[in-house]
Amino acid sequence: MRRNLIFVLMSIEIMLNGTGVAFVAAGSRWGQPDGQIMFLFILAMAAAEVSVGLALLLRFYHLHRNLDADAADEMRG
Amino acid sequence: MIGLLWLIPAIPFASALALAVLRFSRKQVAWIAVGATAASTVVSVLVTMAFLSAPPVAHAYTQVLWTWIDVGGFRPELAFYLDPLSLIMTLVVAFVSFLIHLYSTEFMIDDDGYSRFFAYMNLFVASMLTLLLANNLLLLYLGWEGVGLCSYLLIGFWYRDPANGAAGRKAFVLTRIGDTAMVIGLFLLFHDLGTLQIQELMLRASHNWHIGSPAAVAAALLLLGGAVGKSAQLPLQTWLPDAMAGPTPVSALIHAATMVTAGVYLIARTHVLYSLAPAAQFAVALVGAATLLIAGFSALTQWDLKRVLAYSTMSQIGYMFLALGVGAWPAAIFHFVTHAFFKALLFLAAGIVIEALHDEHNIFRMGGLRTRLPVAFWTFLIAGCSLAGLPLITAGAFSKDWIIWGAWSGPNGSAGLWIVALAGVMLTTLYTFRMIFLVFFGEARSEVTKRPGKVMLIPCFVLAFLSIVSGYVKTPFARFLETVLPWTEGAHSVPITELASEVIAALVFLMGVYLAYIFFLRKRAYAAALASSVAGSALHQFWFSDWGMDWLYDRLFVKPLVWFARINKGDFIDGFYTGIARMNELAWRILSRTETGRLRWYAAGIAAGSVVFIAVVLFL
Amino acid sequence: MEVAFYIAAIVAIVSTVLTITRLNVVHALLYLIVSLLAVAVVFYTMGAPLVAALEVIIYAGAIMVLFVFVVMMLNLGKRAAIIEGQWMQGNIWVGPVLLSAVLIAEVVYLILRARLTETAGGVVDPKQVGLALYGPYLIGVELSSMLLLGALVGACHLGRPVFEKAEGRYDRNSDGARPHSGGNLIRARARRPSDAP
């Protein structure tokens, strides 16, 4: 896993994109709009998640002065 | 008046409760405890007078209080039964308890557990009286267990010393073995005859069982087992010498006069059963004869004053068992009465001596107390003579001669038993006068630090008086008991007359006194030389350790049981449960590794979890 | 048409792989944008013009731009690249590769199990999509609007300027560096001409 939080968020976007491809492909195989509608919802969700995630990232940066994911290890034990 | 019967056990019981629950000052405790036993005695006397003046039907009075259990035909009641046997024993027990309680108020005055002591003592008296007055065997067993409990509590009274607790435990365990036998006997009796009410039981037994029937023999032997445990006879006698760890009044009351005679009472009460089982009755006689010899030899070697008296008690109860075994029932009861008086007196006087020499128990360190503790000396001497059987003057002689005569002429008697009884007289005389000469004569070896007070001396005087005069009531005694315990004079034809037997016994007594005089007063060197010879010291060791019984029981029972318990600690059932616990611990250890607190680890966990989930959905 | 599909697919895969192996954040982001555009082309060849357009507009156009803005704001620079180089070692790929292998196996299994027939091939109009969206999937629309509202409020709150007083508490953990966004605002406001002594 990458330690930089930006890369983590980017990887999430890649994953979402991938599932969207699967959905659209399935929808086009059967010739129905349902796949595209699913992709639409995934898109909306990705947008929401990105905005909140980046805001959290900024807060994280303020707190720890770096973007190391290991710096957030306060849940010990 | 006779309806006051139930008060006899009830008053001490109430007093025991009060002393256990409430707090009183020392003086109040003394008054309550002694007062309870005094009241019990007074009521016994009143009941006796009522009984004598207006004897009830068939010389037996039953007072039913309530029904205890009522289950499928089994209906034991809480009922008291008064007939000449229980009357005599109740009188003696109540009176002797009163005297000993009086003595203890001064003896235990310095002790912390004053009220605890008297609570236990009163509870003991209540249980013993319940036992004696019980109408049915279940109530008798209740009293039986009660006296066993109090004996345990009182032996281990000074509980801070673990040795006392161990002695109490030993007593309890050994009497428990006897109690178990007795309970099985009770089960047998109920199973075969359908009742535990004593008179009814005896009636049915004589109807249903012929003489020598196996059921009767089995029941009688089992009851004998119980009696043997409680009365410290062979083979369950090893607890009595160790029970001397308790305070001296306890030894006087419980282990001399009352509890240890409970076995005698049981056999006398159920004598019909024993008449139906001659084999069992012979066993009783054998047990008595063997014990009286063994205990006599052991008593010769002891150096602790109280232990000599303990073995002496064992031996005298052996005499009582012997009497029961040969069919001389009233002789056994008569000996019980006289024994209660002189043995209690011996213990009380011994208590005075031990206290006076500041807790010195070793008779070889005493001496010359004749002049310094005169009261103790004279009372001890009187009691000792009664024990050994000084003819014509002391009561013990009368009762013992009756037994010796009965050993030959009684229904089951034989010449062999007569000789054993005479040998017992020799031994008794030897060890008694050994005690007397070593403790009271010779030069002084310890200092007298405490003199007894009046309260301690009065019971001694009373008991000494009784030790002398109680022998003279032999004939009216026998006649009184005839309704309960029949005694056929001269059932056997024997070559000598009763008078001749008594004379021979007296001669044996005198020879014993002379031998004791030689060995223990005049030429102590002889005794020392005998004891240190090879055979002598081996015998001495053997007799000292109670004929090796303790060692035998330890090897035979205690060690295997402990070994088995130890290897059983890791048994597989236990292993199963500890295995569960250990598996839990293992799971915990593994799972706690996943709580690392690292963010990336948790994210990876989520990812891996979802992959696994998808796989499960797809493939299963 | 088939050729365009295959070319765009290869481009998408390659650029995604490059994204996750770059050390520089900005480079990775740019590669990601390329990947997204390629995926849009894939969509178009599959006969879904609407989502192709949406992919470009929203995903590559809004979300990635957001990422770029944030990266620029953070101003990570060369030092970050060096640190990334230290962190990027061989053994961190083991776990992810394993998990991905499992997933790929599952997908391949699924594909092979299903009967492989020709695609229907038809283009799905935006009109069709719209009808389906405001027909059976209406509730999804409403829910996603609520989701977006929640995201909006959350991002608004989290992105607020951080005041200096509260910041002092947090700053004990880090090396005492001062906040650079909200504090100036306060200080700027405090220094009014009328307040000068």
Calculate the mean pLDDT score of chain C and round it: 79
Structural class of chain B: mainly alpha
Secondary-structure-derived class of chain C: mainly alpha
> What's the number of helices of chain C?
9
Polypeptide structure, described:
- The complex is a heterotrimer of chains A (77), B (620) and C (197).
- Chain A is built from 2 helices and no strands.
- Chain A has 77 residues and is mostly helical.
- In chain A, helix 1 (5-30) runs antiparallel to helix 2 (34-64).
- The model of chain B has no long low-confidence stretch (mean pLDDT 86).
- Chain B has 27 helices and 2 strands.
- Chain C is globular and about 50 Å long.
- The model of chain C is unreliable at 171-197 (pLDDT under 50).
- The interface between A and C is large, with 52 and 69 residues.
Key terms:
heterotrimer, A: 77 residues, mainly alpha, 2 helices, C: 197 residues, 9 helices, globular
Helix and strand topology:
The complex is a heterotrimer of chains A (77), B (620) and C (197).
Chain A lengths: L4 H26 L3 H31 L13
Chain B lengths: L6 H15 L4 H28 L7 E7 L9 E6 L1 H24 L6 H20 L3 H19 L6 H32 L4 H11 L5 H17 L8 H4 L5 H10 L4 H8 L1 H5 L2 H24 L3 H22 L2 H28 L12 H4 L1 H15 L6 H15 L5 H26 L13 H16 L4 H8 L16 H25 L1 H9 L1 H11 L4 H20 L3 H21 L6 H21 L1
Antiparallel strand pairs in B: 1-2
Helix pairs in contact in B: 1-2, 1-4, 2-3, 2-4, 3-4, 3-10, 3-15, 3-20, 4-5, 5-6, 5-10, 6-8, 8-11, 8-13, 10-15, 13-14, 13-19, 13-24, 14-15, 14-18, 14-19, 15-17, 15-18, 15-20, 17-19, 17-20, 18-19, 18-22, 19-22, 22-23
Chain C lengths: L1 H20 L3 H21 L3 H26 L2 H11 L6 H20 L12 H8 L4 H21 L5 H8 L10 H9 L7
Summarize the structure.
The complex is a heterotrimer of chains A (77), B (620) and C (197). Chain B is mainly α.
